[in-house]
Q: What sequence folds into this?
C-alpha cells in the first residue's frame, strides 16, 4: 500500500550500500551502517530548504505571540471569530504555521518506510523491494561487533539465533546507541528551546511542550530502543546529529540576516559607510573661510594672478 515510500527508501539505501560496498566489504556491518547514515543525510539534504522555512515560520510565530495573545483575550469565547482573525493576521504577514511542519511530517513516512524495509530482511528471502537475494544475504550476514542490524534487543533468543547473534551482543551494541540517541535528542531540543523569546517561553503551554521535548522525547529512545532494530537506532542517532548541525548553520545564517537588516552597511569607493551614521553637517561659508590657511579674515584676496600664463613667472 505504501510502496511509493518503500521503494524510494530502499533505493537510496541500496545506492549507498553499493558505494560503501565498493570501498569496504559489501557484507560488512560498517558498510551497511554507513548506508543507513547516508540515507539520513540524503533525505535531510533534500529537506534543507523546507527546514529553513520551518525555522523562519517558528520565528514569525514568536514575533506574533503578543498579537495572538491579544486576540485570545479579545475573542476567547468566540472561536469562529478568533479563527477568522488568526487567518487574517497570517494572510497579512504571509505566515503559514502548517507549512513549517513539513520537514517533520515528511520524516514520519520515511521512518515507517525504513522500518518496513528492515523488517523485510530475512534469512533466505528472495528479494526485499529493490534488493535482490544476494543483497538480502549480505544484510543478514552483516553485523556490528556480533550484533545484527535488523534485529532488536527484545527478540526471543531463538529468533536471534536464526540470525546468528545473541542478546549479549545486541545489548553491547544497542544500549550505547540508545543512550547516544537519547542524549542527541535532548541537546537538539535544548538548542531549539534556547531560541525562544521570553514571552513565548513563559507561556504555560509552551513550557509544558519544552519539558516534553527536553526530557520525555529523549526517553523514547531508552524506553522504545529495545523494540527497535539497531539500524533504526543508527538512523535516529544520525538524524539528530544532522539536525543539531543544521540548526547551528541555519540559526547563524538567520541571525546574520537580521543583523544586516538592523544596521545595513553600504560600500562606497571600497570604504564601508554605515547607513546609521549621520553625515557631518556642512560648515557655513564664513567658518569655512576662517579655517582656510593663509587667508586673512575680512580681506578679499586678489586671485587674478593665481593662473600664470606659459612662460611667465611671478
A:
Amino acid at each position: 500500500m505504501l510502496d511509493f515510500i518503500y521503494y524510494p527508501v530502499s533505493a537510496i539505501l541500496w545506492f549507498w550500500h553499493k558505494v560503501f560496498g565498493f570501498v569496504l566489504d559489501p557484507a560488512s556491518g560498517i558498510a551497511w551502517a554507513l548506508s543507513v547514515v547516508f540515507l539520513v543525510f540524503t533525505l535531510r539534504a533534500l529537506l534543507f530548504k523546507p527546514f529553513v522555512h520551518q525555522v523562519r515560520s517558528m520565528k514569525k510565530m514568536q514575533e506574533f505571540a503578543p498579537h495572538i495573545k491579544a486576540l485570545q483575550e479579545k475573542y476567547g469565547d468566540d472561536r469562529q471569530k478568533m479563527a477568522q482573525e488568526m487567518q487574517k493576521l497570517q494572510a497579512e504577514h504571509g505566515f503559514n504555521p502548517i507549512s513549517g511542519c513539513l520537514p517533520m511530517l515528511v520524516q514520519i513516512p520515511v521512518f515507517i518506510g525504513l522500518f518496513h524495509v528492515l523488517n523485510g530482511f530475512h534469512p533466505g528471502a528472495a528479494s526485499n523491494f529493490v534488493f535482490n537475494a544476494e543483497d538480502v544475504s549480505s544484510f543478514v550476514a552483516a553485523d556490528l561487533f556480533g550484533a545484527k542490524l535488523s534485529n532488536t534487543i527484545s527478540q526471543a533468543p531463538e529468533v536471534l539465533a536464526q540470525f546468528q547473534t545473541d542478546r549479549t551482543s545486541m545489548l553491547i551494541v544497542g544500549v550505547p546507541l540508545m543512550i547516544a540517541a537519547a542524549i542527541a535528542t535532548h541537546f537538539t531540543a535544548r538548542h531549539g528551546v534556547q531560541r525562544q523569546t521570553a514571552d513565548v517561553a513563559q507561556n504555560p503551554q509552551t513550557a509544558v511542550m519544552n519539558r516534553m521535548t527536553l526530557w520525555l522525547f529523549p526517553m523514547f529512545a531508552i524506553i522504545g530502543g529495545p523494540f527497535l532494530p539497531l539500524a533504526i537506532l543508527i538512523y535516529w542517532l544520525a538524524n539528530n546529529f544532522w539536525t543539531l548541525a543544521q540548526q547551528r548553520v541555519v540559526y547563524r545564517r538567520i541571525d546574520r540576516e537580521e543583523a544586516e537588516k538592523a544596521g545595513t552597511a553600504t560600500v562606497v569607493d571600497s570604504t564601508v559607510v554605515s547607513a546609521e551614521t549621520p553625515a557631518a553637517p556642512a560648515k557655513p561659508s564664513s567658518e569655512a573661510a576662517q579655517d582656510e590657511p593663509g587667508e586673512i579674515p575680512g580681506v578679499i584676496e586678489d586671485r587674478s594672478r593665481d593662473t600664470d600664463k606659459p612662460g611667465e613667472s611671478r
